[in-house]
């Protein structure tokens, strides 16, 4: 401790600040300015009907391109944004940008049926989420039914008032999906009460669907659950024709994944789907 002290008795070295801590602090500092520096943008991954290839919607996936760090993956900066509270600003920007993009596409002659936007737990805790969604819809004129909000099971289960907010969001008419379904601790009793329309089968179950009997069983169970609860089911992370065929065979008609398209720029979506 004493050795770490500088000549004037002040220490610039904090024991907790390992290389990782410094790195995190740097990332945090950069992240805080990322929006104003125009480093944040959205990509859009197509969601399709498996048998027809018809576009049913897109999911907005946020990207951060920092001049020094390059493209930072969301798995690195979303948790950080959640820890620091920056997620509220980021989430607001994402929601507004995604809704505006629907209008830009429409002006260019492409009607994308649905925009899916991911929400974090912290966005629920603050409570302003309902007003934000309502305001954004009013500002952009997007029909509420064309916006689908994605939340994970853990957000629903671990966030005190999530149920209240979800009901409020449902009341303004937006669609709700449970993301990464099957990976959190889902309470089926909760599911029964939730006004959700869609279950998204997590990519981890799709990956080895044709070789792993357990994954296969889980995927089939989720499809059946969706069917009997009258929910639509969409498979995430579909990469092969084999997986798509399996899903179709078991009654899952909707998919998202590299087989149908990686997350695309607005222009790429337009080029690919504009008739
Ligand atoms: P997610 O919502 O489950 O999004 C799906 C992720 O799977 C995306 O990763 C997507 O690029 C990836 N993916 C899609 N198809 C395939 C495939 O066929 N194979 C493989 N290997 N991967 C595929 P991404 O864009 O890196 O996003 C990761 C996670 O970050 C998202 O998972 C979501 O939880 C979070 N995220 C992304 N954008 C936002 C956002 O705007 N707000 C919030 N709160 N979270 C976001
Ligand atoms: Mg998602
Ligand atoms: Mg997911
Ligand atoms: Mg996922």
From TrEMBL:
Q: Which GO terms describe its biological process?
A: cellular response to nitric oxide; signal transduction
Keyword line: Hydrolase, Membrane, Transmembrane, Transmembrane helix
Task: Provide the EAL domain boundaries.
Answer: 24-275
Q: Which GO terms describe its molecular function?
A: cyclic-guanylate-specific phosphodiesterase activity
Q: Name one GO cellular component term.
A: membrane
Name of the protein in its database record: Cyclic di-GMP phosphodiesterase Gmr
Q: State the species of origin.
A: Duganella phyllosphaerae
């Amino acid at each position: 401790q004493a050795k770490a002290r500088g000549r004037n008795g002040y220490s610039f070295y904090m024991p907790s600040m390992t290389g990782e801590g410094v790195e995190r602090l740097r990332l945090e500092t950069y992240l805080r300015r990322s929006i104003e520096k125009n480093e944040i943008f959205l990509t859009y991954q197509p969601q399709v009907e498996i048998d027809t290839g018809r576009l049913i919607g897109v999911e907005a996936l946020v990207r951060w391109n920092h001049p020094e760090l390059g493209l930072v993956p969301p798995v690195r900066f979303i948790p950080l944004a959640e820890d620091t509270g920056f997620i509220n600003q980021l989430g607001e920007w994402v929601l507004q940008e995604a809704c505006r993009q629907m209008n830009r596409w429409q002006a260019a002659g492409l009607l994308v049926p649905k925009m899916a936007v991911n929400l974090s737990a912290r966005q629920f805790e603050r409570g302003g989420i309902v007003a934000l969604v309502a305001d954004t819809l009013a500002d952009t004129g997007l029909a509420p039914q064309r916006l689908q909000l994605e939340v994970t099971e853990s957000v629903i289960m671990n966030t005190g008032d999530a149920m209240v907010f979800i009901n409020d969001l449902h009341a303004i008419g937006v669609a709700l999906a449970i993301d990464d379904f099957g990976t959190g601790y889902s309470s089926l009793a909760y599911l029964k009460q939730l006004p959700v329309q869609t279950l998204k089968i997590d990519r981890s179950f799709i990956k080895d669907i044709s070789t792993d009997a357990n994954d296969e069983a889980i995927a089939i169970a989720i499809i059946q659950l969706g069917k009997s609860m009258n929910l639509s089911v969409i498979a995430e992370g579909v990469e092969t024709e084999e997986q798509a065929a399996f899903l179709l065979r078991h009654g899952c008609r909707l998919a998202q994944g590299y087989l149908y398209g990686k997350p695309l720029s607005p222009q790429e979506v337009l080029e690919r789907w504009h008739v």
